[in-house]
Amino acid sequence: ESGIQYRALITDKIDERLINKLSEMGVAVDYKPGIQHEELLKIVENYDILVVRSRTKVTREVIDRGASLKIIARAGVGLDNIDVDYALKRGLTIVNSPNAATYSAAELTLSLMLIISRNLHLHLIDVKNGKWSKGLYHGIELRGKTLGVVGFGRIGRAVANYAKALGMRILATDVVDISRYAEELGASVVSLTELLSRSDVVTLHVALNKETYHMLNDDRLKLIKDNAIIVNTSRGEVIDTKALLNHLDRLWGVGLDVLEHEPPREDWEIKLIQHPKVVVTPHIGAETIDAQGRIVDELVFNIQEALERVRNHG
Ligand code: MLT
């Protein structure tokens, strides 16, 4: 019945409008951004809905302790921080906001491509430091070059569409049938191997799972052409970072919005960040005012729908 008051726990920093909207729906919200795992295990039993971003790891243990949990809501796209199989087995509903940040992520990807192709990162630092670096770092044009899009989902396709406007040729690969989309966007569907060996720019837009973990390992990195650009705005673990370090000399540059550890902590990650050919941003693909607003709307809509199902069946 609608008289039941559901309780939600939000464990990551989130647009506060989400709290207001959930409260308006009659959900009692506790907002504990940054809560530690041990504390979460202690209190999760008090809640029907758990709302997370990527920081909170929703492990089997969290799910087991959450005896009243009905819904896990991920404010974002990637579900790699949630034990999805186990949650579904326990009868929980998982909702996310898969559409909200598509163009923000695609625009950031394009930004990283442009920054690296023109060595903007080096010029910007020099000029800030009072050095007029004209002629010091040459760039390359993207026009006429080949972009390889690994993962032709919403974000990959949006990137392809933008790249077309730059006059790039598009190659695409995915584990699902993408022929319809490829045709719409004028992209050629090829194998991952062919894509890596033919692309001037390789951009990654895959979900993180067992198949994509270290997908760009040393063997695959070897296939990538000299002077190519690699951009990763998906998940850090998709690239074997240590292997990537050995290829930096022959690549044009690398743009990463994601790392294997966020924030970075290992020596090899610091080495990567400090390298002049590497541009790293702190996982900001979805961090626009526009996307954050849409994430709230999309997530609230999906939570509402899930709650209706719980009310009707549970
Ligand atoms: C996502 O999967 O939604 C993005 O990587 C952004 C985030 O993790 O917050």
| Tertiary shape | elongated
Overall pLDDT level: 97
What CATH first level of the largest domain would be assigned?
Alpha Beta
H/E series: EHEHEHEHEHHEHEHEHEHEHEHEH
Helix fraction, binned, reads 25-40%
Low-confidence stretches: none
Strand content: 5-15%
What's the count of strands? 12
CATH superfamily of the largest domain: NAD(P)-binding Rossmann-like Domain
Domain D-isomer specific 2-hydroxyacid dehydrogenase NAD-binding: 110-285
Pfam family, one: 2-Hacid_dh
Keywords: Amino-acid biosynthesis, NAD, Oxidoreductase
Family: Belongs to the D-isomer specific 2-hydroxyacid dehydrogenase family.
Description of the molecule:
Helices cover 39% and strands 15% of the residues. It has 314 residues and is an alpha/beta fold. It folds into 2 domains: 7-99 and 290-313, 3-Layer(aba) Sandwich (Rossmann fold), CATH 3.40.50.720; 102-280, NAD(P)-binding Rossmann-like Domain (Rossmann fold). The strands form 2 sheets. Strands 8-7-6-9-10-11-12 form a 7-stranded parallel beta sheet, with helices on both faces. Strands 2-1-3-4-5 form a 5-stranded parallel beta sheet. Helix 5 (102-117) packs across helix 7. The mean pLDDT is 97. It binds D-malate. D-malate (MLT) binds next to loops.
